[in-house]
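Query structure, 196 tokens:
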């Protein structure tokens, strides 16, 4: 049995992420990945059962990087407005600094493999987020609503601003840069909209 080499595994994952972002999921073959990573196809199977397992493991790894970045500096005792401001800044920073990961995480949600990821236990992220939301409802800082509505009202505005920032232009095609002032002004409006 061959010994696992963490450096090789990291290289395989990095090249897989790069290939998926640049060529789509259909562009990822084990032969092409092996060439790009400088390993034999057999080496990939030391770390992953098959192509789907590779994609799922890559998703879980990148998801956890994203979730850990979101809760950085977040304290469950913060008031809701402060907690949301920390999250918005963390989410925006991560999306801007990690475009490949953001692209990959977004696009895997439209594949059947996304459902496979729900079989894994959720990270600490879910516990922290639920605690903050429940406390905000109790303190009348947040109206009670279905999760889908909450996510759409609270985070969709942020991700639209980040998307325009990454494109470098707004919906009218004019130059656009997301500033801290714009982020905070938008957040204030969101907070007003979700109060009971």
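Result returned for the query:
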């Amino acid at each position: 049995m061959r010994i696992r080499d963490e450096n090789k595994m990291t290289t395989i994952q990095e090249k897989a992420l790069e290939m998926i972002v640049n060529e789509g999921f259909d562009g990822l073959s084990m032969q092409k990945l092996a060439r790009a990573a400088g390993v034999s196809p057999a080496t990939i199977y030391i770390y992953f059962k098959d192509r789907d397992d590779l994609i799922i493991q890559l998703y879980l790894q990148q998801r956890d990087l994203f979730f850990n970045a979101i809760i950085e500096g977040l304290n469950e005792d913060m008031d809701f407005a402060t907690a949301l401001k920390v999250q918005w800044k963390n989410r925006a920073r991560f999306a801007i600094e990690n475009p490949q990961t953001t692209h990959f995480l977004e696009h895997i949600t439209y594949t059947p493999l996304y459902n496979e990821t729900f079989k894994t236990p959720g990270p600490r992220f879910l516990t922290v987020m639920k605690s903050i939301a429940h406390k905000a409802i109790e303190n009348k800082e947040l109206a009670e609503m279905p999760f889908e509505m909450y996510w759409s009202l609270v985070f969709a505005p942020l991700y639209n601003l980040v998307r325009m920032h990454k494109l470098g232009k707004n919906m009218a095609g004019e130059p656009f840069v997301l500033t801290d002032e714009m982020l905070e002004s938008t957040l204030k409006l969101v907070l007003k909209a979700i109060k009971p």
